[in-house]
Structure formats: structure tokens, C-alpha cells
């Protein structure tokens, strides 16, 4: 039986779905205004692996997995203004990149991918309901959720009031009744993306979209709600408050599952710290998506994962070994030891160590596939050792640099490829490459 650590209960609990024929899982998805970094890829890979496990246990059609796309947000509006384009140009571009990058890591698209801009009506309906029930109020064109109207506010993060006010990093707004109150709807200025509403033309705050889309697509109470640790407060706390107040106290999710951060040395990887590594960069360096997936699964999902080059090279060595052991076998039965490790709160490091010890190639193939690994062909894995599109992309970058007379960059790319065993040859027809 699967056991999951539930952040709300603060313990591992046996996973018993409400309806085993329709298990519901929602994971907060990307805000599409920039390229995803490897820390953003971690929840995508972790919940893809959990989805595989649930489907293996309960049946291929047992799970309805929704992951939203936040395509209206102040950062998107700012990017669009900076580029002088419509916000949809930004969001289309980065959603496409996100799906490409996650696809390379073996992450299947979710069953349902609701977009905030397509779900304004259910959001407005939920806000109207909260206003009508006295849980939200209008102030200077904004609609705010009144946290003091919900007595259990803080149940997920268990913060005291002072920490909540500080942690919410709420803007000082004189019209708020309480400093911890948060925005459900805000006015849009002329020329800024917006929709008509009972409170004038405006746009939703971030938190309301998940509550409204969960209700619209999965129901009032879902089985699993997932996301990164950083979403516990305020985002998930606020989702719970909105949904429970709109649904007569019904719980929003029966299991709250949160993954840890990817760290860079002592720091969390984040755009604002400027220390990010993207899957796109790593793929362009010639690493394969499957290698990155194994690297991301090499720590338990709740633990921090320190990102390092050795982590990637170790993952590659392990995959070489696993592919060699699997040969061209077709998948058989899943190994009981691997299964047990995954049942125990998705213990992927233990599952991987058991995988490495397996001797029967068919068992190995089937067991690895639960983790989204060894799904390719062994011959292709070793052939030319990898997808060459990353190398081609680096060569294209180098040609571009040469064209711009940026010879330092061109030389650096040549040296980096050489360090990876790739030799470039410039000829009249362009640049060709070979392995050393
Ligand atoms: Zn959310």
C-alpha cells in the first residue's frame, strides 16, 4: 500500500483514495514568463513519478492529474511590456519551452492543463460567493479575502500571526482590514490585460485560480495536492482558506505533498538570486533528459537536493550500467523491493539502489519504467552516446558568436565541447563534429 507524507497531518499516512476509479491530483504549474530551471523541473518529475506509481497500483485510467498554467500575472505583464508584445506572445513561448523541457525529462503532459486566462468565469463566481458569505470584501476596486473570517487560517503552515503577516510579504495597502488579507481580484489600468467583472474591469490574484480550477475540473475535495515547499505559505494556505470558505468547510485536499528545493551550494536555486541552471542549458551541453531525470530522483523528494556536476555524471554512469544490464529485454514484472521502496512515500533513492542490484533484465526494465527510466532502446543509448541535438545547438551558438566577431565565446564553446570529447572541424560547408 502506498503511504504518503501529508504536510497538513505532519505524518506519513496510508494513501486511501476517495474513489479508486477516479483519483484526483492537482499540482501547481508554471507561471510562464521565463525558462524553467532545474529546481522548477523537480516537482514536474516527482509528481510524474507519483502519477506512474498510482496508475500502476490502481489502473491506467484511475488518475485525473491536473497541472495549471498561470498565464496572467504581473511578471508576465512586465515582460510583455519590456518586449513590446502582447502577453500571449510571452506565455505561448514559455509554455511551449516548458513542455519541451519537461518532455525531454520524460514528464508526460498532465491529463488536464487549465489556463488561468480561460477560467476567469469560475474564478469570478467563486469570488462572488466568498463576498456573499462575508469572507471577502471590496476596497478601492480590489476584492480581498478576509483571513480573520476563517478560524482555521494557518492550519497548513502553522505559523503564528506575526510570521504570517511578515511571510505574506503583503504590500502595505491602507484599504486592507487586516495586513494578512490577500487579493482575489484587482483593477486593471487602461491598456493592461483585464476582464469585465461585477467589480469593474480587472484581473484575478494568483491564489484564486487554483481553488477555482480545482473545483471546476476535479471537484471540491481532491485526493492529492502537490507543489514545492515554498508554496505552503502563503499560496496553499490561501487556497485552503478560499476553497473551504466557498464549500461549507469541506477540505480542499486529503493529502498535501510538498517537494524540497534544489540547492546551489548553500543557496536555494531561484531566478531572483540569479543562480539558476536550466534543463535547456544542460541539454545543450549534451546531457540527456533521462540523465537529468535520474539526477532529480536520486534524493528523496522531501529532502533538499544539492545540484552539482558530479550528480549529473554519477547519474550518467548509473544509466550506462542500467542500460547495459537491461540489454534488449522486454519489460516483465516489477521487482517487489523496488515497489516497496516507492510505496514508502516515494522513496526513489532506495528504489534506485535496488534497481542497480537487479539481475534479471526483464524485471529491471519493468521496474525502471515505474521511475520513467530505461524506456529507450539500449542500442540507441550507447549509439553515438546520446542525442546530438545539444551538440548541434552549441555549434550553432558558436557560429553565431563568430559571425558577431565574438571570438572569445566561440573559442570557449569549442573548448567546452572538446572537454566533453567532441572535436569540431571547420570546413567550407560549415562546421562538422566527431567524437574523439
Ligand atoms: Zn496553486
Describe the structure in your own words.
The chain is α/β, with parallel strands linked by helices and 436 residues long. It contains 16 helices and 15 strands. The protein has a four-stranded parallel sheet, covered by helices on one side. Helix 11 runs antiparallel to helix 12. The longest helix is centred in the first third of the chain and has 21 residues. The structure holds zinc ion. Zinc ion binds next to helix 7. The site of zinc ion (ZN) has 4 residues, from helix 7.
Instruction: Give the termini separation.
Output: 49 Å
Helical content, roughly? 40-55%
User: How would you sum up the major sheet?
Assistant: 4 strands, parallel
What is the number of beta strands? 15
Shape annotation: globular
Please, how many helices? 16
Judged by helices, strands and strand pairing, the structural class is alpha/beta
Task: Give keywords.
436 residues, binds zinc ion, four-stranded antiparallel sheet, alpha/beta, single chain
Quick description:
With 436 residues, the chain is an alpha/beta fold. The protein has 16 helices and 15 strands.
Secondary-structure blueprint:
Elements (H helix, E strand, L loop, with lengths): L2 E4 L4 E4 L8 E5 L10 H21 L4 E5 L6 H10 L3 H18 L15 H13 L3 E4 L2 E4 L15 H7 L14 E6 L14 E3 L1 H12 L4 E7 L3 H15 L6 E7 L2 E3 L2 E2 L10 H6 L4 H9 L7 E2 L2 H18 L9 H8 L4 H9 L4 H10 L7 H5 L6 H15 L3 H13 L2 E6 L2 E6 L1
Parallel strand pairs: 3-4, 3-9, 9-10, 11-13
Antiparallel strand pairs: 1-2, 5-6, 6-7, 7-8, 11-12, 14-15
Helix pairs in contact: 2-3, 4-6, 6-7, 9-10, 11-12, 15-16
Amino acid at each position: 500500500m502506498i503511504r504518503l507524507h501529508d504536510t497538513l497531518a505532519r505524518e506519513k499516512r496510508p494513501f486511501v483514495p476517495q474513489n479508486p476509479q477516479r483519483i484526483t491530483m492537482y499540482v501547481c504549474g508554471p507561471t510562464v514568463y521565463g525558462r524553467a530551471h532545474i529546481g522548477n523541473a523537480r516537482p514536474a518529475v516527482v509528481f510524474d513519478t507519483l502519477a506512474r506509481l498510482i496508475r500502476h497500483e490502481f489502473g491506467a485510467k484511475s488518475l485525473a492529474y491536473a497541472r495549471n498554467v498561470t498565464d496572467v500575472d504581473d511578471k508576465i505583464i512586465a515582460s510583455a511590456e519590456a518586449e513590446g508584445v502582447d502577453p500571449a506572445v510571452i506565455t505561448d513561448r514559455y509554455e511551449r519551452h516548458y513542455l519541451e523541457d519537461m518532455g525531454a525529462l520524460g514528464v508526460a503532459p498532465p491529463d488536464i492543463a487549465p489556463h488561468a486566462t480561460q477560467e476567469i468565469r469560475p474564478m469570478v463566481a467563486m469570488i462572488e460567493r466568498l463576498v456573499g458569505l462575508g469572507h471577502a470584501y471590496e476596497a478601492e476596486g480590489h476584492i480581498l479575502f478576509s483571513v480573520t473570517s476563517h478560524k482555521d487560517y494557518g492550519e497548513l503552515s502553522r505559523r503564528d500571526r506575526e510570521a504570517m503577516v511578515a511571510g505574506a510579504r503583503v504590500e502595505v495597502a491602507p484599504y486592507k482590514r487586516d495586513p494578512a488579507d490577500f487579493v482575489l481580484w484587482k483593477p486593471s489600468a487602461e491598456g493592461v490585460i483585464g476582464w469585465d467583472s461585477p467589480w469593474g474591469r480587472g484581473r484575478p490574484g494568483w491564489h484564486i485560480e487554483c481553488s477555482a480550477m480545482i473545483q471546476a475540473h476535479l471537484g471540491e475535495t481532491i485526493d492529492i495536492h502537490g507543489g514545492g515547499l515554498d508554496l505552503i505559505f502563503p499560496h496553499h494556505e490561501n487556497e485552503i482558506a478560499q476553497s473551504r470558505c466557498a464549500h461549507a468547510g469541506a477540505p480542499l485536499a486529503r493529502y498535501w505533498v510538498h517537494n524540497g528545493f534544489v540547492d546551489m551550494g548553500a543557496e536555494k536555486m531561484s531566478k531572483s538570486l540569479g543562480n539558476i541552471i536550466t534543463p535547456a542549458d544542460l541539454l545543450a551541453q549534451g546531457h540527456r533528459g533521462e540523465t537529468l531525470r535520474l539526477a532529480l530522483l536520486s534524493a528523496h523528494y522531501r529532502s533538499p537536493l544539492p545540484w552539482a556536476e558530479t550528480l549529473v555524471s554519477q547519474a550518467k554512469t548509473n544509466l550506462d550500467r542500467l542500460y547495459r544490464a537491461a540489454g534488449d529485454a522486454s519489460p516483465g514484472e516489477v521487482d517487489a523491493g523496488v515497489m516497496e521502496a516507492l510505496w514508502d512515500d516515494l522513496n526513489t533513492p532506495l528504489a534506485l539502489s535496488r534497481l542497480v542490484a537487479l539481475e534479471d533484465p526483464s524485471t529491471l526494465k519493468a521496474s525502471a519504467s515505474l521511475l520513467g527510466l530505461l524506456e529507450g532502446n539500449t542500442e540507441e543509448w550507447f549509439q553515438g552516446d546520446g542525442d546530438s541535438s545539444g551538440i548541434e545547438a552549441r555549434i550553432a551558438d558558436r557560429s553565431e558568436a563568430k559571425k558577431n566577431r565574438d571570438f572569445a565565446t566561440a573559442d570557449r564553446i569549442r573548448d567546452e565541447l572538446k572537454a566533453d570529447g567532441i572535436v569540431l572541424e571547420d570546413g567550407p560547408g560549415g562546421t562538422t563534429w566527431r567524437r574523439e
